[in-house]
Each structure stands twice: as structure tokens, then as C-alpha cells.
């Protein structure tokens, strides 16, 4: 299958911004399933494909995509397109785009750190930013998902100030708002070397704006839940409280997720619905994926491979985890 011609993100962002001015900014309108296929009570399903490139590479990704091709699934989120040991080449990026775009279900791609943070040029120097921009051009140049059936997305690049951040996207299914946030697992690409964190700092500002926008939409539209997909684990449910929390804040530990974690927890406190954080940072050996809750904030680490989540507003639990292909 030939690779679709993709327009640069910057140019597309400007055009989409103009459209938003005329039609109303940041409308969460994406639907992942035909009306006839959807239950009247708002129940639906989505699948997540975790980062599985360290063992099996493209074959495992292809298998996971096939496992999540069931007609009952509204959409699939794929985290990562390559492993650390694979080349950062245009050829490989394009091969993975073709593979993902052939999927039966609407598929949203979220970049992983291995896709760009460790990439180097022929001289051995980092070219992480150039490679991230190339991934953005190939995978995020249109206001839709990949896949044989398209899902309408609203991208952060629709905002002129953040037109480079097209990988951050949101869509809605019934009363749930879904969104991707670029938070790579390797400490959010926070570098300990002084003076080398401009990418991290700029993305931190963009993500802060993005998260505020997402929760504003959820409150305005009286949605039941917000689901955030990222590669990195914010560790929102494993943080100390009380005096231990104050002590940790007083002693910097170079936690690249700290500010985003505090923001998400603060926004969740003001949101009456549920907030589910889904990451693909990986699980300890022998530990199976599970949804853990603290108050209205839930956390799910998928590990490698694919899994499905059933969303049932009328059920005892809003989110129910199931193995892929069940």
C-alpha cells in the first residue's frame, strides 16, 4: 500500500486553526463506531497496544493489530512505532505507518520515547528533535486517526501557539473524553545535563495547556470520564501524602513527571467524574494488567501486547479490563 502524502504539521495546523475559528474551537466530536453498531446505553469498547518492540518487533505489532480488529471495538490506541534497537530511519517509520494504517479499526498512534529520544545521526550526535518532527509529519499530519475507518480527532496543533504538538489529540465516544499526551517513559525525556532540557520544558508548557483544555471540555460537557493515554507512568497513585509529600517537594529528585502529575491530580479533584490514566511503561515480570483506583483517579499499565477495555456507564464498574480478542 503506498504511503499517503502527508502535509507538514505546521501548515495543517494553520489551516485547521482557521476552521476552528469559524466552527468553534476544540469540539470533541470524534465517534469511533457506526450508529447501528453502538449500544443505546452508551457502552463501548476500546483496545490498547502496549510497547512490545523489544521482543518480536514488527511481527508482534502486526499480531496485536489483528487481535484488536474485532468489529465491536470502537478504536485502538497504539503506543510506539519502533524499539530502541531499530533504526530511526524514514524507511522504517513509513513501513510502520503502512502497517498501522491497514488496521481494520480506527487507530490512534502515540509516540514512545524509543521512537525518537535516543536517535542519533551518522556523527553520533543526538537528532531526537529532528526525528520527533519527522514522526509528527508522517503520523499526525491529518485531523483523523489511521486505520481503514477514520476517527475524527482534535489535535493540539489546532492552537497556533502549539502547532508543533500534533501528537496530542482528543476525541469522544458518548460521555467519555479520550486524549493522548506525549509523556515518554524515559523520565519524560528530562535530561540531567545542565542546559539540555529545552525540548522537555517546551513540551511541559504545551502539555499543561492541553490538560487544562481537556478538563475544561469535560466539565463544560458534563462528561462522565476522562481517559488519558501516555507511554510514561505518572505514578499518580503511588505518591506519598501528608508530611512525606511536603518533604519530597522540598528535595528535588529530578522527576520528569512531577509537575504533570500534580496538575492531573489537581484537575481530577475538581472533576466530578472518573479519570483513568492508561500508560504502557511496562509491568514487573509476572504482574498482570489491572485497573487500580484511588478516589476518582484510576491507573492502568498495559505492559507489552494488547488488551481491551469495556466502558459501560450502566454497569457496576465504568471500566472493565479484558484480554484482547475476548
Protein model, in words:
The chain has 326 residues and is an alpha/beta fold. Helices cover 29% and strands 19% of the residues. It contains seven helices and twelve strands. The chain has helices at 9-23, 57-67, 90-101, 128-139, 198-220, 243-250, 258-269; strands spanning 44-50, 75-79, 107-110, 154-155, 169-173, 176-180, 225-230, 274-279, 291-294, 297-301, 305-311, 319-323. The chain is globular, with a radius of gyration of 19 Å. The chain starts with 8 loop residues before the first helix and ends with a strand. Mean pLDDT is 84; it is low at 1-37 and 241-248.
Oligomeric state of the chains in view: single chain
Number of strands: 12
Q: What is the terminal-to-terminal distance?
A: 29 Å
| Unreliable stretches covering 5 or more consecutive residues | 1-37, 241-248
By DSSP (H or I, 4+ residues per run), the number of helices equals 7
Average pLDDT, all residues? 84
Shape-level CATH architecture: 4-Layer Sandwich
Order of helix and strand elements from N to C terminus: HEHEHEHEEEHEHHEEEEE
How many discrete structural domains?
1
Helix content: 25-40%
CATH classification class: Alpha Beta
The global form is globular
As a whole number of angstroms, the C-alpha radius of gyration is 19 Å
- CATH superfamily heading: Metallo-dependent phosphatases
Question: What is the CATH topology classification name?
Answer: Purple Acid Phosphatase, chain A, domain 2
Main sheet characteristics: 7 strands, mixed
Beta strand %: 15-25%
Amino acid at each position: 500500500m503506498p504511503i499517503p502524502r502527508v502535509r507538514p504539521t505546521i501548515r495543517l495546523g494553520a489551516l485547521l486553526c482557521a476552521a476552528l475559528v469559524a466552527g468553534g474551537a476544540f469540539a470533541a466530536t470524534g465517534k469511533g463506531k457506526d450508529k447501528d453498531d453502538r449500544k443505546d446505553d452508551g457502552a463501548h469498547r476500546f483496545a490498547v497496544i502496549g510497547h512490545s518492540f523489544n521482543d518480536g518487533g514488527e511481527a508482534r505489532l502486526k499480531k496485536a493489530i489483528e487481535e484488536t480488529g474485532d468489529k465491536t471495538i470502537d478504536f485502538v490506541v497504539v503506543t510506539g512505532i519502533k524499539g530502541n534497537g531499530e533504526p530511526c530511519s524514514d524507511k522504517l517509520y513509513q513501513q510502520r505507518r503502512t502497517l498501522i494504517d491497514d488496521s481494520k479499526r480506527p487507530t490512534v498512534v502515540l509516540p514512545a520515547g524509543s521512537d525518537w529520544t535516543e536517535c542519533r545521526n551518522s556523527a553520533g550526535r543526538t537528532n531526537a528533535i529532528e526525528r520527533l518532527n519527522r514522526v509528527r509529519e508522517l503520523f499526525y499530519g491529518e485531523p483523523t486517526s489511521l486505520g481503514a475507518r477514520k476517527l475524527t480527532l482534535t489535535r493540539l496543533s489546532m492552537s497556533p501557539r502549539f502547532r508543533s504538538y500534533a501528537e496530542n489529540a482528543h476525541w469522544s465516544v458518548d460521555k467519555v473524553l479520550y486524549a493522548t499526551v506525549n509523556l515518554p517513559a524515559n523520565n519524560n525525556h528530562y535530561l540531567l545535563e545542565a542546559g539540555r532540557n529545552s525540548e522537555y520544558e517546551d513540551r511541559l508548557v504545551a502539555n499543561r495547556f492541553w490538560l487544562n483544555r481537556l478538563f475544561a471540555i469535560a466539565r463544560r460537557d458534563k462528561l462522565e470520564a476522562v481517559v488519558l493515554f501516555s507511554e510514561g507512568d505518572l505514578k499518580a497513585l503511588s505518591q506519598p501524602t501528608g508530611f512525606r509529600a511536603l518533604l519530597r517537594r522540598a528535595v528535588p529528585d529530578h522527576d520528569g513527571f512531577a509537575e504533570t502529575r500534580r496538575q492531573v491530580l489537581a484537575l481530577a479533584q475538581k472533576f466530578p467524574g472518573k479519570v483513568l490514566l492508561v500508560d504502557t511503561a511496562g509491568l514487573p515480570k509476572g504482574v498482570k494488567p489491572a485497573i487500580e483506583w484511588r478516589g476518582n483517579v484510576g491507573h492502568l499499565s498495559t505492559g507489552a501486547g494488547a488488551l481491551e477495555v469495556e466502558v459501560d456507564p450502566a454497569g457496576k464498574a465504568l471500566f472493565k479490563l479484558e484480554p484482547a480478542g475476548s
